[in-house]
């Protein structure tokens, strides 16, 4: 019954059954413990997850791959990275999922160097990293300003591991290059994507242009056109486009975009570009 509730995305109900089991002094099986840990993960309830971990230790239950991975994921999702990494290290057997969860947990919680090192360990163990592992690692490279490492990992992902880059992978590369001020290279990544970039990627690139004060008219015009085409009804995009135009000194275009913003119902106040115009 606990497994059914967890599979049905009803973690609170699963925990309710668990409490009744405890009152009836019923013992949990390994399969039940995996389901309970999954429920704790969904609820982000680390305290209850730790209680289940304590029972595993008390009763000397073997930490097989399924149970170990469930425990690992619970700690990872609750941002208890050190505990997650400890579980990973003591697991006698690991599968692709346990490696991926640990790499992502390290990368997402400010331990980028450790995540990159673990990816190398994973490759040496004979396992091939998956798409999720590379998304986490490329994101970590962006936060650590590891441009060369990020480029190398992206190349290895496609040429060595034969993983087709997703929108998220391209977004990580644009963010990585944009943060480093490599505006033209980031733009080339966008232009050579096999799919149309989404608004998240475009906004990331435009923010990088603003941060590094790199306003390139023909690039900005191209991106504004794409942004309006993929999300024509999002007022925030017109705010962004208006600020881009005003940064270029194109006040007529900015005024026209302000009219569009009013029509879309946005009440957002423009930033420093509009203030600069009034001074």
From TrEMBL:
Highest taxon of source: Eukaryota
Ranges: PPR repeats: 95-129
GO biological processes: RNA modification
Xref: Gene3D superfamilies: Tetratricopeptide repeat domain
Keywords: Repeat
InterPro entries registered for this protein in UniProt: E_motif (IPR046848), PPR_At4g14850-like_plant (IPR046960), PPR_rpt (IPR002885), TPR-like_helical_dom_sf (IPR011990)
Listed name of the protein: Pentatricopeptide repeat-containing protein
Organism: Cuscuta europaea
